[in-house]
Amino acid sequence: MKNLKMSIAAMLLLAVSFTNAQEKEKMNHDHGDMKMDHSKMMNKNSDAKAEAILSDYFNLKDALVADDTKKAAQAGTKLVASLKAFDMGSYTKEQQKELADIIEDATEHAEHISESAIDHQREHFKTLSKDITDMVAITGTKSTLYEQFCPMYDKGSAWLSTSNEVRNPYYGSKMLKCGKVQKTIQ
Amino acid sequence: MKIVKIIAIILLVAFVGIQFIPTTRNQSDTVPSTDFMLVNNVPETIQKKLQVSCYDCHSNNTQYPWYNKIQPVAWFLEDHIKEGKAELNFNEWDSLSSRRKASKLRSIIKQIENGEMPLDSYTLIHSEATFTEAEAEELINFITQLKDSL
Question: Secretion signal: which residues (chain A) (predicted)?
Answer without folding.
Answer: 1-21
